[in-house]
Amino acid sequence: MAETAHVPRSPGRVVVAGASMGGLRAAEQLRAAGWTGAITVIGDEPHMPYNRPPLSKDVLAGTASFESLAFTPRASAADVEWRLGTTVTSARLDERVVGLDDGTELAFDGLVVATGMRPRKLRCDGPSGPGSGRHTVRTLADARGLRDELTRPGVRVVVIGAGFIGCEVAATAKGLGVGEVTVVDPEPLPMLRPLGELLARSLHRRHEERGVRFALGAGVAGFEGEDRVTGVVLTDGTVLAADVVVESVGSVANTEWLDGNGLDLSDGVLTDEQLRVGGHPNVVAVGDVARFPNARYDGVPRRVEHWSIPTDSAKHAAKSLVAHLAGSVAQPAPFAPLPTFWSDQHEFRLQSFGAPALGIADVRVLDGHPEGDVLVGYHRDDRLVGVVALGGPAATTGAARYRAQLLARPALIS
Amino acid sequence: MKVVVDMNKCQDHGQCVFSAPDVFQLDDTGRLAYVSDPDDALRDEVEEAADVCPLQAIRIEA
């Protein structure tokens, strides 16, 4: 056996737990921030990272191939090691090691928590599991499975939950020619909590005009059927006949693997304003699993499930982590992203900048009319904290005009 | 640096315009126009624009 001097791993390894958009962006941004050591990304799906928003729209409609969804990693991240089809099952942060589902352990110098969310599922009586007709939409496999069922002739669809995914799925199903699409939600209007009453009412009308039915103000008591769902029983006693059920009732953070480290995992993983986790400067979190304070608003830690957040948080977290690993004590400015989201439903688009949910008590029409293209401002303490456009391209362009104003606003609480 | 936008994918979200305003613009009708051979000094901006494109329609070649 050849004599080899002990060479310390230099400059070490960063493990990225999670291989969706946040994991990919973290790997790329570690390189951009100057990290020259090893990077290993662990992901439980068999696919390289791909773009999820088309799952409830173009993939469901059959107009997007997987190839068109796959992200192309930056050239600077070409030497990243991808371990796909592998789940991170445990972590001992003090010992700097994570455990994998194949029984092996992997040592790290830095760790990026990017394990994201999974759909919440209703726990009530009735059929469940594969083949039961109950679906969620989070992964490519989910979307493909649902599409196969939506294209069966005469299928009756009940969507549970009138949030982003539920409304998009309902619109896409209508576009596919499904005759009966009913959306169930305990709130009196779709998307009421993220958008407030004015836009929620406008959305409701637009969906109804395009043939989507609603059962609002009612929850789900159970499902009818033996092996396969045949109906949805509502809390008010109504039974909706259903061949396919789509559950879009929120999501659960994938943080169980972090148990036992004394972290606050009550809703995602709590971070500080540098996206560092639980007093471990070599552990950062990115994407929708991170519950972070946003210095732009009130400093209250929140998870943000918007598409822009994985990219924004990866950039900040990578800088924070690389600075620590390089021994720097300099503090970057606190993370203060401007959240943005969009949603395409039927032929119209919602486009949002800022944090409308924080200004839901003071909603003002800035331009247009709720019956057509409309631009709405959300205010808190008389300050504009978010804008949402609903309608065609003109409305979207109008929203963009306010972006600089939203960015320029000083923090509400200094 | 060569920039290619797949105009079949592009849905005029305009996110790229915020990241790299010297390279990407929305015209008066809200459609995207862009510089296909921007100066290499703009590479960081263009990479960011490609990252934030909701349709992942922006490709950077060489």
Automatic annotation (TrEMBL), chain B:
Function: Ferredoxins are iron-sulfur proteins that transfer electrons in a wide variety of metabolic reactions.
Phylogenetic placement of the source organism: Bacteria, Bacillati, Actinomycetota, Actinomycetes, Kitasatosporales
Keywords: 3Fe-4S, Electron transport, Iron, Iron-sulfur, Metal-binding, Transport
Domain of life according to the entry: Bacteria
Name assigned to this protein: Ferredoxin
PANTHER family in the cross-refs: FERREDOXIN
InterPro entries in UniProt: 3Fe4S_ferredoxin (IPR001080), Fe-S_cluster_ET (IPR051269)
Cofactor(s) it depends on: [3Fe-4S] cluster
GO MF, one annotated term: iron ion binding
Organism of provenance: Streptomyces sp. NBC_00119
Pfam families, per the entry: Fer4_13
Gene3D superfamilies according to UniProt: 3.30.70.20
